[in-house]
Design goal:
CATH superfamily: MFS general substrate transporter like domains
CATH topology: Growth Hormone, Chain: A
CATH architecture: Up-down Bundle
Helix content: over 70%
CATH class: Mainly Alpha
Radius of gyration: 20 Å
Order of helices and strands: HHHHHHHHHHHHHHHH
Largest sheet: none
Number of strands: 0
Number of helices: 16
Shape: globular
Strand content: under 5%
Distance between the termini: 27 Å
Number of domains: 1
């Protein structure tokens, strides 16, 4: 494996580790600074997640366009430096408002994933981009493999310890990238920065005008809103339904991360050539819908352990769709496309935590007439089924076989 590819995978892995490190401790940390119960802590968790996503939604297209103009390297390095400083801030936060400020700053700097995807698009052929994006997803899954279990164990010592660990990881990654990362975008392929396109709506209009991409963006939006139920609710859901503490939450997320890494780092290389990208999306959406229903109705913890590796297979949907859309964009639009996709992801992260934590709150509070901690997963299943319906409706008129 070439050193630049290794660095990109490490970048995404560490980025995911920073997220995974803090997930197991958020219920306890919010409860500490707010003095509230689990249901109300989930509502604040939704607000913190949404604030992060709002800033990412607003800034990701700008970062994508800046990387098309000035190159991938400076965007990746600056993002890492800001994230390292931000995690230090959050490790010392003793009020909900400082936590909120920390999530806002992190959202502004969260262009790492989109720029990493653009970097991989730069150095990969059109035929290999689906597999390259699968490696990125595998790195993200590996981050979730290591991050949650480390965060769970550190959280048992102090709810703030995972934030300092995330700061150290981001700082170390910045230093590594400074010395080993070459630029992937030649000066001849860079384009003039157009501020009319360097915003969520402008970039969306430009990319949405490409043939067949607009409906795929709608599918991706519904898919992402449904899929973000996992990070939005998991720590609260497992604590309410099964009495899990931070360590067990971290272990479960680690198992899920291992399963995702296996799927997107290995199985995807078998699935995509055999099914083709179109069929991979179709069957992946069906599997995701089924698993979400099963999570929502699970009554014992063993059911969750059985579902985790099965539901991880559904992660094939995102890289398959990214490959389809990447082929529709020009070589000088890859950063813009990934910025738009990051904005779609961020918009999903704005809506999903707010909606899913509200569903959790109404079905777990003391006054509820129906105790159902899995209600957010059932709502997500409806959205996933909607994504499937949109995708099937768009594909049927073409009547073309899979790739």
């Amino acid at each position: 494996m070439r050193l630049p590819v290794l660095f990109i995978l490490i970048t995404v892995t560490i980025d995911a580790m920073g997220i995974g490190l803090i997930l197991p401790v958020m219920p306890d940390l919010i409860g500490e600074v707010r003095g509230s119960d689990l249901s109300n802590a989930a509502l604040w968790g939704g607000i913190l997640s949404a604030s992060y996503a709002v800033m990412q939604f607003l800034c990701a297209p700008t970062l994508g366009n800046l990387s098309d103009r000035y190159g991938r390297r400076p965007i990746l390095l600056i993002s890492m430096a800001v994230l390292a400083a931000d995690y230090v801030l959050m490790s010392f936060a003793h009020t909900i408002w400082l936590l909120l400020l920390g999530r806002i700053v992190a959202g502004i700097a969260a262009g790492t994933h989109a720029t990493a995807l653009a970097y991989m698009a730069d150095i990969s052929s059109a035929e290999k981009r689906g597999q390259s994006f699968g490696l990125i997803s595998a790195g993200f899954g590996m981050g979730f493999t290591l991050g949650p279990i480390i965060g769970g164990f550190l959280g048992d010592l102090d709810p703030r310890a995972p934030f300092m660990a995330a700061a150290c990881l981001a700082a170390a990654n910045f230093a590594f990238g400074y010395f080993v990362l070459p630029e992937s975008l030649p000066a001849a392929r860079r384009r003039v920065l157009d501020w009319a396109r360097a915003n969520p709506l402008g970039g969306l209009m430009q990319i949405g005008a490409l043939p067949g991409v607009r409906v795929l963006l709608a599918v991706m939006l519904a898919y992402q809103i449904a899929n973000f139920v996992y990070p939005a609710i998991w720590a609260y859901y497992t604590q309410a339904a099964f009495g899990w503490e931070a360590r067990m939450v971290g272990v479960s997320l680690t198992v899920y991360g291992v399963a995702m890494a296996v799927v997107q780092g290995g199985l995807i290389r078998v699935i995509l050539p055999r099914l083709g990208e179109t069929r991979a999306v179709f069957w992946g959406l069906i599997l995701n819908t089924t698993c979400l229903i099963a999570y929502g109705l699970a009554t014992d913890a063993w059911m969750v352990w059985v579902l985790i590796p099965i539901s991880a297979v559904g992660a094939v949907v995102a890289p398959a769709m990214q490959a389809v859309m990447s082929r529709a964009a020009g070589a000088d639009q890859q950063g813009e496309l990934q910025g738009v996709l990051a904005s779609i992801s961020s918009l999903s992260m704005i809506l999903s935590p707010l909606v899913m934590t509200q569903a959790f709150f109404w079905f777990t509070r003391e006054e509820t007439g129906l105790w159902l901690p899995g209600a957010p997963f059932l709502l997500a299943a409806v959205l996933m089924a909607a994504a499937l319906a949109i995708f099937v409706g768009a594909a049927r008129p073409k009547a073309q076989p899979a790739e």
